[in-house]
Amino acid sequence: MIDNEELYREWRKWEASSSVVEERQPSERFGELMIDIADNLLKSPKFSRYPIEDREEMRSEAVYKMLKNLHNVDGAKRKSMFSYFTLCAQCAYLTYLRKKYRRMQV
User: From residue 85, how far is each of 40, 100, 104 by CA, in Å?
Assistant: First the structure.
């Protein structure tokens, strides 16, 4: 289970790592939390029926999008960090599936 407070602490560490956003590096634990969020969302009935290959691609895309959007997180809304990253993952999944099926139709 992912603790929202731990997620917030890891985000604060990332934010404090450098004053320049491009130089900030997330910790390994922060990456593990992102992977856990992506994996848990893939277990939902909405996404569990897709082939393993697609789910692996979706997971990679979701983790990439979550890490890419770290700078958009509002630290004042620390209670909703988990929901923000879950929404990022869900949007990444839907975007991946939309692109895949659009290519299949062409």
Answer: 12, 23, 29
**Is the distance from CB of 35 to CB of 65 less than 8 angstroms?**
no
Q: In whole angstroms, what is the distance from residue 2 CA to residue 5 CA?
A: 9
Q: 3-state DSSP: the chain helix, strand, coil percent, rounded to 5?
A: 75, 0, 25
pTM: 0.88
pLDDT in tens, 3-18: 888 999 999 999 999 9
**Rounded Cα–Cα distance for residues 16 and 59 (Å):** 27
The residue ranges of DSSP E strands in the chain, in sequence order, are none
Structure letter (DSSP) for residue 6: H
Round to whole Å and give the CA distance between 39 and 45. Answer: 13
* Pairwise CA distance, residues 31 & 25, whole Å: 10
pLDDT tens figures, 36-67: 999 999 999 999 899 999 999 999 999 999 99
What are the Cα distances from residue 79, in Å, to 15, 20, 90, 104?
Answer: 17, 25, 19, 40
